[in-house]
Amino acid sequence: MTTRLTTRLLLGAIAGVAGTVAMTAAMNRLHPRLPRSDQYPLPPREITKRIVGIEDDDDIKDAATAAHHGYGAVTGALLAAAQPAMTARLGSGAGVAVWAASYFGWIPAMGLLSPAHRHPPARNALMITAHLVWGAVTAASYRELVTARRTVFRDGPVADAPDQLPSTGDDQ
Q1: Of 38, 58, 56, 61, whose CA–CA distance to 126 is shortest?
Q2: Residues 141, 96, 131, 79, CA torsion sign
Q3: How much is the average pLDDT of 17-39?
Q4: Burial per residue of 5-32, b for 16 or more beta-carbon CB atoms within 10 angstroms, e otherwise
Q5: What is the DSSP code string of 64-87?
Q6: 8 Å CB contact between 28 and 92
Q7: How far apart are CA 46 and CA 39, in angstroms?
Q8: For 77-114, how does the pLDDT look when each residue is reduced to its tens digit (9 = 90+)?
Q9: Cα–Cα dist 22/25, whole Å
Q10: Does the pLDDT value for residue 172 go beyond 60?
Q11: What CA–CA distance (Å, rounded) separates 49 from 41?
Q12: How far apart are CA 157 and CA 172, in angstroms?
């Protein structure tokens, strides 16, 4: 049974957010392992600061968090729309494709950051790894959500409604 496009977009967006949470965790753990000279803020903050021009540190962090997860949701939705039968391999490949299209494509084209080949190799390795994590987790999350539609969210009686439960005497 084919899942309709609106459902794939919804589930893909949710899965993309889950993937972005995992990606952010990977970035958190890998960033301190970079050479000291490469431990400056990672691209989500750099890009957000250049786009919105906020100066307050907390506001930049909030905007970067929202933008990063929003971008993950949109790319997850697009991935699910294009490829409803996601595997971990496909998701990881999509993650690397998102990295390449972003860091060699639209980000330098908009003048936000230089192309990836000008970034330090260790930072590129971190970002590629983080995008592999995003893709694999997004794909796994999407598959779980599709399965949940057939299992925990399937049609059936509302057996836990107040009028369906036996009285225990302490309902008042």
Answers
A1: 38
A2: negative
A3: 98
A4: eeebbebbbbbbbbbbebbbebbeebbe
A5: HHHHHHHHHHHHHHHHHHH-SS--
A6: no
A7: 13
A8: 999 999 988 999 999 999 999 999 999 999 999 999 99
A9: 5
A10: no
A11: 11
A12: 25
**Residue 11, C-beta contacts closer than 8 angstroms, at least 6 positions apart:** 3, 80, 142, 145, 146, 149
Residue 94: the pLDDT is 97
In angstroms, the CA 90 to CA 98 distance is 12
List the structure tokens of 129: 């790894």
Do 135 and 96 form a contact (C-beta atoms < 8 A)?
yes
Sign (positive/negative) of CA torsion 89, 79, 141, 99? positive
Most distant CA pair in the chain, distance? 72
Tokens of 107: 């980000």
The Cα 89–Cα 151 span in angstroms is 25
- Closest Cα to residue 67, out of 48, 46, 40? 48
Q: Cβ distance 147 to 20 under 8 Å?
A: no
- Measured CA to CA, the distance from residue 140 to residue 118 in angstroms comes to 32
**CA torsion through residues 16, 71, 132, 36, sign:** negative
> What is the pTM for the complete model shown?
0.90
